[in-house]
DNA sequence: TTTTGGGTGAACAATTTGTAAAAACTGTCG
DNA sequence: CGACAGTTTTTACAAATTGTTCACCCAAAA
C-alpha cells in the first residue's frame, strides 16, 4: 500500500502543488492547514513522513515538530523561507530530519523525501520516473530523452514539461497550469514562455511517431495526445 | 557458504529493506513475522546471527531472546523504537549482544552485525565493495582506485563520491543528494564542493575509457554514465 | 473580414558550471 | 608545541548553456 505523507502548510497553492507531485510519484497525501489540525491529522492517519511548514497560524512548525517528536520517530522535513544555516541547525535540533528552503523545486523535495525515508529504514515509494510511448522514452531518472534508442540532448525545462504533459496523456493543460506545475508556484513570467518550449520540443520530436502528438488545443492550452490503437 | 541472518520483524517494509541490504552484502536472509515463528525458524535454519524486533505480536522480543539464549550462544541484535538507555540495559541483561534503535541507517546495521560477529569469533560475510567498469576499478575495501591495473592515489572523499555515483550508473544525483548521501545529511557546506571534487575526479579519469563518463546534467546534477553495453 | 490566439526566430537575460587559486582543516612528526 | 604535507572547502570570475521576451506574421474562430 502507498505510504502516506502529511503536509502541514497553510498556503493552499503550495500544498496543492506538493500533493499533485507526490501523488504522481505514488504517495498518498493528506493536507492540514494549520498546526493544531496538523497534530490531529498526524494521529488520525499515522503518516510515513511529515512535510512541515515553519510559518503556520496557531501552533508554529517548531511546536508541531516537538509535539510529534515527543511521541514518535516519524520522519519530519521542515519547509522554511529563511535560508540561514542557523535555522537549519535549529530545525535539526528540534528533531526534524531534514530541511528544505522555499522556493523549492519539486525534484528536490522528492529527492529529500526519499533520502529521509531511506535513512529511517523505510522503503521509499519509488515509482519509476520513466515513460515510454512507441519509440519515445522519457527517463527522468537518467534525465534523458530517447528517440528510437538514440539520445536527444534536451534542456531540463523541456524535459520536465514533456514529462508532465506525457504523464497524463490526452489531458489538456492551460499555460498557467503548466507554469504552476512545471515552473513552480512562485513563477511570474509570461505565458508565452510555454509556447516557446513546446515549439522546441516539437522540433525535437517531429515525425518520430504517428502514435502520439504534442497538440495545441485552441484557446485552452496543450496536451500530449496518444492516438487510437 | 554465506552466513544466514534471521530477521524477526513484523513490519514487512523494514524486514524487506533489511533483507535487500543484507543480501547485497552477501548474507542469506530468512524472515519470521512473529515471535513464535521466529523461534521455529531459528531451529530450522540455525542462523549465524539474529536481528530481533522488540515489539512483536505473540511472544515479544525479550521472550524470543531468552528462549534462544537458553539453548544457544548465537549472537542476537535487538531492534527497538525506544531509545531509552534502560531499555538497552534491559536488553543486554536478557542476553542480547547489541542493540539498535529505529530509525536506523542500513550502514549502521551492517557495521553492528559485523562487529558482533567478529566479537563472537565468527568471520563476518563481507561483500566486496568493488566496482569494475572497463579499465576502471573502484575498490572501497582497499580504498583504491585502479586504472588499467595502475593505482591512482585518490583522497577519500573523491573515492566515496565516485563509488556512490558509480554504484547506480546512469542515474542523476543532485548536488544536495550527493551531499546528503556522501557527506552526510548533517553537512552544512556549499553545494559547489561537489563540483570541485567532480573536477578532480575528471582530471584523474580523463581519457581512460570511452565506455563510461562522469557527466554533468545541466541544472540537475551529475551522473556516472555507462555507454553501450 | 475582423478579432483573437498561436508559431517562430532572434536578441537578450539569467542561471549554472568549469576552473584556478586561496583559505581552512587534519593529522603527523620532530 | 609548531611546522609541514596532504586534503577539503570556499571564493571569485569566466565560460557555457538555458530561459525569457518580443516582434512579426500566420491560423482559427466568429
Task: Outline the structure in words.
2 copies of one chain form a homodimer. The first copy, chain A, has 229 residues and is α/β, with parallel strands linked by helices. Chain A has 2 domains: 4-119, 3-Layer(aba) Sandwich (Rossmann fold); 130-226, Arc Repressor Mutant, subunit A (Orthogonal Bundle). Chain A is built from 8 helices and 12 strands. The first copy, chain A, has helices spanning 12-24, 35-45, 61-71, 85-93, 106-119, 156-167, 175-183, 192-205; strands spanning 4-8, 28-32, 49-53, 76-80, 98-101, 130-133, 136-139, 144-147, 150-152, 173-174, 212-217, 221-226. The first copy, chain A, has a 5-stranded parallel beta sheet, sandwiched between helices. In chain A, strands 6-7-8-9 form a 4-stranded antiparallel beta sheet, covered by helices on one side. In chain A, strand 3 (49-53), helix 3 and strand 4 (76-80) form a beta-alpha-beta unit. Chain A is elongated and about 60 Å long. Chains A and B meet through helix 4 and helix 5 of A and helix 1 and helix 7 of B. Chain A binds a DNA duplex (30 and 30 nucleotides) through residues 155-158, 189-190, 192-193, 195-199, 202, 216, 218-219.
Q: Assign the CATH class of the largest domain in chain A.
A: Alpha Beta
User: What proportion of the residues of chain A is helical, as a percent range?
Assistant: 40-55%
Named CATH architecture of the largest domain in chain A: 3-Layer(aba) Sandwich
**C-alpha end-to-end distance of chain A:** 31 Å
